[in-house]
Amino acid sequence: MTPDTSPPANTTPSAMLEASGVKQVLDKLDAELIGLAPVKGRIRDIAALLLIDKLRAEQGLQSQPPSLHMCFTGNPGTGKTTVALRMAEVLKQLGYVRKGHLVAVTRDDLVGQFIGHTAPKTKEVVKKAMGGVLFIDEAYYLYKPENERDYGQESIEILLQTMENNRDDLVVILAGYKDRMDTFFESNPGMASRIAHHIDFPDYSQTELMQIAQLMLTHLNYRFDADAEPAFSRYVALRREQPHFANARSIRNALDRIRLRHATRLFTADTALTREQLCTLQAEDVLASRVFTSPAANSAAPSSAKAGDR
Q1: What sign does the CA torsion over 177, 178, 179, 180 have?
Q2: Strands, DSSP E only, in the chain?
Q3: CA distances from 225 to 149, 209, 282, 283 (A)
Q4: 44: closest CA among 25, 66, 70?
Q5: pLDDT over 50 (residue 248)
Q6: Of 43, 146, 241, 281, which residue is the least packed, with the fewest Cβ within 10 Å?
């Protein structure tokens, strides 16, 4: 059931933000994601637009639901899916969608391999997303002009019609690398014209990646000892120079492997393990990574490294 976000008479915008529950969602986004100040600022701007739009409507002023379809661009691991999830909650709290859920899909969920398969697949996904947000990752793969027998265009046509006819109960967010999304929009002007908000997600800095790592470890009840933290900082610096670095996703993967080495080291202990031992990651758990023996670790040209997440 959609919450009643009607403000009392003479309410202030800040009070509206609090009463609607949107402030709590935005605060949660701040707590979940390190950095991304431009992204968070844009989401707050959209929330402000929707709140003021509701206030205008209640004052009898001209108002119509704004177009809310979006495009999130950026490299992997920069928080696009998390922000989409919180955006769905904001829209629900303000009554712009009924359910506020997120349905995340890729081309494979929308496009069939044979004649007659694409339309039912796409329509089924749209049906599931109705009342919330449809998040299409790597959306540019929907369009493959080099393949005359590709059925992606059929899915795009259905999405275009849905985005236009159901804009009051469904928000579509397209996501992917910026250059590829730019090419996709150039080839699909109908889709480009329906996207009102373009939000770019920057890569995380070294400092932000270390903060992300500390946040992840805290949630898991782990910590670095005095030598492990600088070792991991060096790991991050080296890994950022290698191909296929995926920001927070690569940090999470690295911590998973460090925890694996930590567990293997402790498993050989002949004595009872203390809480401190169970929680503390040591430098040796970090330094065993292949990143430290890759060309980037021993070369003046780190960008030539070939190793991936290890």
Answers
A1: positive
A2: 70-74, 102-105, 133-137, 171-176, 197-201, 223-224, 280-281
A3: 57, 18, 6, 7
A4: 25
A5: yes
A6: 146
Which pLDDT score, from 0 to 100, does residue 273 have? 94
- For 253-292, b/e burial (b = at least 16 CB within 10 A) is bbbebbeebbeeeeeeeeeeeeeeeeebbbbebbbbbebb
Tokens of 213: 């790592």
Angstrom distances, CA of residue 78 to CA of 181, 203, 205: 16, 6, 11
Q: Over the stretch 1-14, which tens digit does the pLDDT of each residue have?
A: 555 555 555 578 78
d(CA 207, CA 258): 19
Provide the β-strand partners of residue 74.
201
pLDDT in tens, 175-197: 999 999 999 999 999 999 999 99
Cα gap 129→210, rounded to integer Å: 35
pTM here is 0.85
Phi and psi at 41, nearest 5°, equal: -65, -40
Residues 194 and 69: their CA atoms lie apart, in Å, by 7
Tell me the pLDDT tens digit for each residue of 200-243. Answer: 999 999 999 999 999 999 999 999 999 999 999 999 999 999 99
118 and 82 Cβ atoms separated by less than 8 Å? no
Angle at 164 between CA 161 and CA 169, to 5 degrees: 110
User: How far apart are alpha carbons 54 and 17 in whole angstroms?
Assistant: 12
The closest of 108, 106, 110, 130 to 120, measured between CA atoms, is 110
